[in-house]
Amino acid sequence: MSGAEAGTQPVTVLETPIHLDYVFTPGIAQSIFLRGLARGVFLGQRCPTCGKVYIPSRGSCPVDGVATDEVVELPDTGIVTTYCVVNVPFAGQAVEIPYTCAQVLLDGANISFMGLIQEVPADQVRMGMRVEAVWVPPDELGPSLASVKYFRPTGEPDALYESYEEYL
Amino acid sequence: MSAPARRPVAVVSFAQARNVRREASRNEVELLMPVVSEVFAAIGASKDDMGFICSGSTDYLVGGPFSFVTALDAVGVWPPRAESHVEMDGAFALYEAWVLMQEGAIDAALVYSFGRSSPGDVTEILALQLDPYVTAPLWPSPVALAALQAQALIDAGEATEEELAEVAARNRSAARANPNAQVVSDASPEELLADEYVVAPLRRHALPPITDGAAAIVLAAGEKAREWRERPAWITGIDHRIETHALGCRDLTRSPSTALAAERAGLFEGPPVDLAEVHAPFAHQELIVRRALELGDAVTVNPSGGALAANPVMSAGLIRIGEAAARIWAAESERAVAHATSGPCLQQNLVCVLDASDGAVVGGGA
Amino acid sequence: MAERCAVVGVGQTLLRSKRDDVSIPGLVREAAKAALADAGVGWDDIDAVVIGKAPDMFEGTMMPELSLAPALGAVGKPMFRVHTAGSVGGSTALVAAHLVAAGIHERVLTVAYEKQSDSDAMWALSVPQPFSAPLLAGAGGYFAPHIRAYMRRSGAPEHIGRIVAVKDRLNALKNPYAHLHLPDIDLKMVEESVMLWDPLRYLEACPSSDGAAAMVLASEGALGSPAFPPAWVHGMAMRSEPTMFAGRDQVSPRAGRECVADVFGQAGVTRPREQIDVAEVYVPFSWYEPMWLENLGFAEPGEGWKLTESGATAMDGDIPWNCSGGVLSSNPIGASGMLRFLEAAMQVRGQAGEHQIDGARLALGHAYGGGSQFFAMWVVGAAKP
Amino acid sequence: MSDGDVLVANHVLDYPYARSVGPVLGAFFTALSEGRIVGVEGSDGAVIVPPTEYDPLTGEDVGELRDVGPGGVVTAWSWQVAPGRKHHLDHPFAWALVRLDGATTAMLHVVDAGDPGAMATGMRVTARFRPPAERRGHVLDLEAFVPEPDGGGR
Questions:
Q1: Where are the domains of chain D?
Q2: What is the pTM of this model?
Q3: What is the architecture of the domain spanning C5-121+208-222?
Q4: Closest by Cβ to C118, choosing from D18, D52, D57
């Protein structure tokens, strides 16, 4: 029978690093959206069946299962549908806490995406608040949502709850 | 043994993406969407007819979690559907759908699978299937392990390198007739033997290609099947079995799990099959599976070219079932067997018996 | 055509933040062997094994059913692997139950697990991919806005979440397997815990746990001699809807409403609050209790929080929810759904010990996953259906 | 949009998994760190190497640990013509199933044989451990098997 020799520490943990390399493509539809961001514009795509505008589109209308072929340029403005205030630090965080993350529904879009809200204290962000995108300087634009520095209030009156309730 | 009678369920539609070495532009949703669209269009069905949806895929091919979640957008599951996913080849997703259909409440189901092997190094990725403590840290590729198996077969006097070349030559020549095949060749076995070894005794030709692909099947029960397909491919039996994971505890020259699954699927009862689509990514594995399925010389094996002509990981097994069913629809086969495998050296195997007649449906179970 | 199916054995591991005393095979065997012992059967008596877990990247093991097959006595048997995001523990149990209900097998072992401490769950859930949006909010930041939307929609006061956080942790004190045991928990402690994603505080969120759950499911002819009476499956259903689409109701998803309508329909439940004796519902953040109370039809829209506030969902209420302590007290992601199904079965078998609801006859087990788009549920009962 | 407009980027999946190993694998790795190999008795008395907490065929619990090796017999092998970037040897080597002396089952590892002509099924090999200072309780503490002198290689 074997036993640990004097002085040997019993092994309880095994380290097995895994490193895998990939060549990643976001696909055709998302490339359209990302290339738009690199030009400082929001490009959505319309479903030919239901007419809804998706931004970003992953290539299909999730409801109808058909390609969203028609590209639609959307404005920089929209509303906060809902939000949370981030108070927790975590790896990869780009902004000093506390800050506000909101679901932003661009005017003309039928789906919201998450955006940072700045130039307003966290406790003054509201559901229905009108916001506009602030882009990074032109030389920093790239194919990523990081091209949108943040959204800020436009000062317009809030949207009525009924106008965005279906997007919650 | 006699298994209880089963509800007749048939493969009525099948579509696959053209198998390619590298699908560089489209993401998984974009790859899958036309396949799903085609599998419905071929029979005039729609997603609204489907009582259940089941898919098979693995996150490690794309290198991110939850790849099946976004892939579902290729179908459009609205209104909500009964839907599930297996981290297995699509052939196993088909099995789950078949099981649910046995209970009688579901008359039609969509099954699909997808996977791009090109974004990463699939030989490194598949090493992560091995036990993570003592085997995966050695990073043996599936080729290295298959080569051990091939050498064991050669040592046992049950195969020669020439026979492996013959298998490869026949599959890739047959693939000429398959518009979706990736690797076709008219090279003779003698010419193939000039290939270099990748991991000896396996030469280049005995290996599967690296393939990006996707596939979809529609299953239908009873009258629904006859409505959609004049000559449905009835699943008269389907079963799958697994072996131990430790290679050193297995006889690598045999596939007892294939043989047992075949028995439970009723393959050895009734008339012999005339056609087989076997999922043998490496040439010598076709010899092992043929023996386990007791396929005689009269059986046409892999008219599609099999996994040696195109091996989209996670779809190659489901495609075998689709290819076999298509032969029955076309009256090129009366009774066929399809086989899917998973894991190193044929660790896990599924056998599906398809018949032009919905007679005695047997198989499955203990 | 469907055969009757019953739970005849249950097993779970100690649920802890790090189960550094066991390997992954050791972890799944701890649960599986307990389930076999409870059912009074051995490995040879099992016809097939169905296993589930969340993303393979948690443990860096691809398709681990292959390497775990021998550890679960599956050699020579069918071995099946399910992955449906957070609902996986529930949908895994459902696949196993369907194998019995369809008459394919007599006795099936089903297992779900997660060994999150082998890596970092937050990393594995959101592996950064090229071109993806910057990580703005972190994991809870996905759910917190939906909670805010619920509060707006229902007019619920902000202390409701704290009530759930305290109730489930008090229940966990009666469950020796539960991960979090916080004997001093009270509303003040929750209120004073760190605000993570406003409106969500630290003690209103689930922990990250290691653990496994297992059940033996049997047909009517193969019940054997289990230690406790069988829990009969009266209904089972799963539903999915797209993750993101225009006009999606993320507070009360239609897939959840239709799933519960299906499962209650099968079980003959028309008045859930009266007919269901106890429910184990996937509540990873406190506010999901009132949200799911409405989604599952235990309360009218906008009224769920009133049920929570009234104490109806406490162990001494008329519809106790999560007597085990629930996901708020233990969250091995891949196993969390199966634990809900398993705890529901334990209640109707009368084996829940200190957190037993006396005389429980009919129970709901519920799991959901991803962004509230995947649902799996079952209803189990002490009486044969 | 033409396919040429589709974005592409490198993506790395990287994590240093730290796995708790439990009692049986723990004993195996501890032994390797001491330059020894242990197996475990299976449910029918067979000695299983590498040891598992369960019988690899029946799933039953296992018995006592047993010392095995360091010599053994190659039961199957293949030849890695060109090492991959993940492999720990930088020159061609054999993959082999090695049934260690005293063991019933064979374990997968590599044989540092130099040349495929030195390999044969049935040949005897012996374990080559890393120097004690380089061992870390890992399967690669056993760096490779090497042919025994006159061990039956071709």
A1: 19-147
A2: 0.97
A3: 3-Layer(aba) Sandwich (3.40)
A4: D18
